[in-house]
Write a structure and sequence with these properties.
Elements: H1 11-23, H2 27-36, E1 41-42, H3 43-50, H4 54-66, E2 70-75, E3 78-83, H5 86-100
Antiparallel strand pairs: 1-3, 2-3
Helix pairs in contact: 3-4
Length: about 100
């Protein structure tokens, strides 16, 4: 191993990291995450807030949940979604800080 590549993770970790960053590459998913900064919401609440269909929101929530960025909780027939943990806020905050640099 050369000095230049000693910090490169193994291929599995690289693919997982690339997949995670792909999730942030969709503005609809980012909008959902920004709404979830304020707490827990149902699919209907998110759809109303973002002026989108519940189907479109559900599809994006599935992607976010699969990638462990949101978590869900059932209350009767309704599912409520929230950020999975504080890392989600940190990742977005760091991205915003980076793009706002001059």
């Amino acid at each position: 191993m050369t000095k230049a590549n000693k910090n490169i993770p193994d291929e599995t970790e690289l693919y997982d990291l690339a997949d995670l960053f792909k999730v942030f590459g969709d503005s609809t998913r980012l909008k959902i995450l920004f709404v979830l900064f304020d707490g827990e919401f149902s699919v209907g609440d998110l759809a109303t807030s973002l002026n989108m269909t519940q189907s479109a929101i559900s599809h994006q929530l599935k992607v976010l949940k699969t990638n462990k960025l949101v978590k869900s909780r059932r209350d009767g027939k309704l599912m409520f979604y929230s950020l999975a943990d504080e890392h989600v806020r940190v990742i977005i905050a760091m991205g915003r800080e980076h793009i706002e640099e001059q």
